[in-house]
Amino acid sequence: MYLRSVVKGVCLLFLTAAGSPAFSQALTKPADNRFTKVVLVQRLEEPMQFQVMKDGRVIYAERKGKIKVYDPATGQLTLVAQFPVSTTYKNKQREVTEGEDGLQGIILDPDYDTNHWLYIYYSLAGNDPKNVLVRYEWYGKELIAGSRKVMLEVVTQREECCHVGGGMLFDKHKNLFLTTGDNTFSRASDGYTPLDEQPGQSPRDAQKSSGNTNDLRGKILRIHPEPDGTYSIPEGNLFPKEEPLTRPEIYTMGNRNPWRPSIDSKTGWLYWGEVGPDGSDEDMEKRGPRSHDEFNLAKKPGNYGWPYFVGNNKPYVDYDFATKTSGKPFDPAQPVNDSPNNTGRKALPPAVPALVWYSKNIMPEFPLMESGGNSAVGGPVFRAGDFGNARRVYPAYYEGKWFITDWVRGWLNVVEVDEQGNYRGMERFLPGLHLKGPIDMKFGPEGDLYVLEYGNGYFKDNPEAELIRIEYNGGNRKPEVQAAATKTAGAVPLKISLSAAGTKDYDEGDSLRYEWKITRNGAAFKTMKQATPSVTFTAPGTYRATLTVTDSKGAKNSKSVEIKAGNEPPVVGLKITSGNSRFFFPGKTITYAVSVTDKEDGSLANKRIMPAQVSVSANYLSEGYNPTVIAQQQLSFDAAAQHAGARSMINKSDCKACHQTTGKSLGPAFTAVALRYRNDAAAVEKLAKKVISGGSGVWGDAQMPAHPALSASNAQAIVKYVLSLGTPAKVVRSLPVTGAYTTNIPQGEGTEGSFIIRAAYTDRGAKTISAQTGEKVVVLQPPVLKPSKADEAGGFTFNADSTLATVRDAGGYLKFSKLDLTGIGSIAVITEAGSRQATGKMIEVRSGSPEGPLLGTIDAKQGSPGTAITGNLGTADLYLVFPGPMRIRSVRLGPAH
């Protein structure tokens, strides 16, 4: 259902309140479950910029020269045009390298319905280095070739990359804004600002462009298109039309790579993201601040500082690249461009600070920006009045707020400013949504937020590139359905129970109707109208049970579960026959025995299943054991599971933005890194530090961003995975089904990992049913108990990251349920320095309850040894009872000797 009249009334009331941000704060934030992500089209080829048309079609540009249209009525993409574009540059060694150029921008004229004008901005192919703004007539199919008008040319250099800009929009006066990049190579500037004034180094000096009042690069331009294909200059740009050494098209200057501009339709203020440099270091005395990306707001024309300032006008130092000497910091009140590459005025307008700025580190001012690599992408300012009677307009809570994102980090944030345009606050929009290289974002005519995702990786057709829209539902919501079965495979007759447990409806008062439809190989088998029915399958086959849940207003949703009847999965057992079944002690030997029983195949015991058919393995996972991560990665414990955690961290981070596994991207391939450091014993520690702190120089000029929030252990885990890619996979031989195993930690690995012992058997299958696999896994953990993992904690408090537990009062206790105490000879309590009581106060170790049998006592004095444990205690509930306040780090178990 769409917005009811009462919701529209709230929007109207909101608008009559002058759109006051203070009023918006009083409104209730809508629940996340009222927003739905809808994937429109996938596997796009380097998409760059788009526009949603009035009829719902989406026209967009691809960097390599294609213009395409997505039609929601058919779900199909249609090629509109293909332009020959320049996408490469040639450096001083005449090497041809992929750059950022290409087809960058596309927009329809505000009067498209009558004049059918379409504007594009692209890098002209050939030897004439320039980017051009051209206009065509387009009537919905191919462009009219004879209608081409070249409106504006931006002269560039193609000796070095980067930064093109290309964002376009119209204001309410039908003025066209166009963003242009600084066309400057900055990776040879040590992560600081590129001000290389040496002869022949103009491509590495942004003073020729962004800081140049007489150059169109590094700017946001504002022009008014005329019917004959020319343009006029609107009143109120940065420089008067006749002023010497200036270009009248300039609205803002001092831009590095202004990205995805937006105009607030109510205030007329201009918003945009500003992609910053790649450096992680700061040297305010000799060079200047570390790099920052920015989100900017312009209430009027201005100079936004680059390349002399960044962020909130943090000044760079006037550095001489020839002599490597430092001058004075630049003055934001009176910036001066005295570069020999400058063709404009020397005295520049005062610098305007950014609205929001953020580095590779966590910013105390803007913690929601997170940390790591960054690439600011602007987005739209929401105004309900822009959509009239559209079906899915966002709620009044977002009135006047700015939606922003980051190409690397993939979050969506909402920024709020006050009536004067000052920063007021920020919040996360849909925290559970992570975008994959968002590169353009705007609202469509029906009120939906559209996002174009480029994918994670430069200059390639990323499989995750897609166009999505995020719909708001202010009315009745579909039920959220969960479907499960007590058993999903087994011999016939197979009797199971189906369950809708966990199904819910977010709208209060909705009654739900349940219907299960079961099909066999696509044909109808049975229909049941209960939430938890039982069903028996007598014929072998693959069945699909689909649960459809309908609410009282007719909204419905479905989910399915697959059942395979005709082959009982094998049952695998793995028992530790001597030694501890939960903890390992380095260098100690355990014995084990595997059992396998399969209804159709037989068992190990009756020798119908042979030991050679059973896989038994043992591995040490230095990252510890996370069954969820390993299951999501679909990895075998025998090989790649060793690095499952590292792969998961890479997938969640910005690594894939710059690296591929085998192919070169902005940074080297992981396999190339592995080969370079194959024989370097210090590589793990060295590279882990570089991952955390950032750096450059080994693989060229490209900067690796810092990842200060990454722990040393996690960085080392990632590096170990990368280095493993240069080593041929080891052939893992199966262990015997009955035997002994010594828990020796591999050289160079930490002691906080786990030994994973796994037994698995895949049966022979049946005529109509595929083979089934059964497995049993035993995890041997390090002999350390964390207080935060206790099953009960009476009289305790924990710090924010649960690394420290504090006993509040005498009698406080920790309970660890069903511990295997086999082979345990001692128990010690590790406390924070200076937190224990005086000698004579005893920590009690008890079994079964806080008043249960006393196993031993530990002196509460700081640094005292643990207590000896004697006797074969087997499995028991272990209690530690404390005599008074102290701070506990961990509990250590020692082996019996």
Automatic annotation (TrEMBL):
Keywords: Electron transport, Heme, Iron, Metal-binding, Signal, Transport. Residues 1-26 form the signal peptide. Residues 479-563 form the PKD domain. Heme c binds at C655, H659, M704. It comes from the Bacteria. Residues 188-218 are annotated as: Disordered. Binds 1 heme c group covalently per subunit. Residues 640-726 form the Cytochrome c domain. GO terms for molecular function: carbohydrate binding; electron transfer activity; heme binding; iron ion binding. CDD domains: CBM6_xylanase-like (cd04084), PKD (cd00146). This is Carbohydrate-binding protein.
